[in-house]
Amino acid sequence: MKKIVLISISVIIVLSLLYGFASLFSSKKVSCVIEIKQGESVKSIARQVEEKTPFSSRLFLFTVRMLNLDRKLKAGYYSFSNYYNIIDFAKRLTKGEARLIKVTFPEGFNCFEIFDRLEKSNLGKKEVYMQYFYTPQDFLPDEFKSAKTLEGFLFPDTYLFRANSTEKEIIEQMVSQFKVQFKKAKEFACLKERGIELSDYEVLKLASLVEKETSVVSEMPLIASVFYNRLKKGMRLECDPTIIYALILEGRYDGNIRKKDIRMKHPFNTYYIKGLPPTPIANPGFNAMKAAFCPAVSKYLFFVSNNEGKHLFSETYKQHLKYVKEYQVIYWRRKWKKKR
């Protein structure tokens, strides 16, 4: 009888060991975030593991002690979304991963809007970003050595930034994405074939104007063609968004453009200066850069909003005035009367 009991106990022990070792290598779906705080105990971490994953606290404690990981677990913010066995899961918690913060920047955001959003997302201070804003050469390749600011070089996209990222690291990440997208856009370049001589920085400036004038991708090459046609004829670009940017720089933009603003003597006001502004006025996306590198072939010199998100293009000032009267003067007069 004793022999039977001993055999039974032995079998149970062997089976338990086999089950335990099987558990070490059995992969399970883990979808959660584990946050280890500085100085947090192993037992506290084990409780969190049991609450958020398919692994028990006992299995976790056994694993980290067996692998001598209990003193190697590091504070961090760990995001899991895959299949893991307990060994791989435990080893991951020794990496000291930082929390990731998702931030989206729409096409056409200027640097000041980008810095505001970063600060509101607890990713650095605007005043620090502004210091880097005026020292672009610390981040840019040689072909942009004439750049005066970082405007235009922070590519608009959705990013995942580490919560402990420095302002410099974030700028480097965004400039790195700009380099990739600018290079892709340049592959479509057709300016030389059309007898247009512009530097990469000048193309970027023009792309920023295109981005601010329309969000309709199909219109971008036409908008770009208008600007190139006006440059070729020595006409002023007369781009309203440049007035807005000038007012932003002076800290007095309130959402409106007045007659006196159109006439103001400012280096960014393309109603006053000839040619392109000193820097880009926003951070253009890929499609605007592509349009600037290869504009449509047209004779258009003017465009005006149709108040439905698109534009009407014309070759003559006479036709342009007709569109302005119909789609701006009369349209807004009717809107004003309805409000009264």
Summarize this, please?
With 340 residues, this protein is mainly alpha-helical. It contains 13 helices and six strands.
Describe this structure in words.
48% of the residues lie in helices and 11% in strands. The chain is mostly helical and 340 residues long. The chain has 2 domains: 2-92, Endolytic murein transglycosylase (Dna Ligase, domain 1, 2-Layer Sandwich); 111-300, no CATH class. A two-stranded antiparallel ribbon has the order 1-2. A hairpin with a 5-residue loop joins strand 5 (302-305) and strand 6. Helix 3 packs across helix 4 (86-92) and helix 8 (200-213) packs across helix 12 (286-293). The longest helix has 24 residues, at 2-25. The N and C termini lie far apart (103 Å). 31% of the residues are buried. Mean pLDDT is 90; it is low at 10-19. Functions as a peptidoglycan terminase that cleaves nascent peptidoglycan strands endolytically to terminate their elongation. It comes from Thermotomaculum hydrothermale. Its EC number is 4.2.2.29. GO terms for molecular function: lytic endotransglycosylase activity.
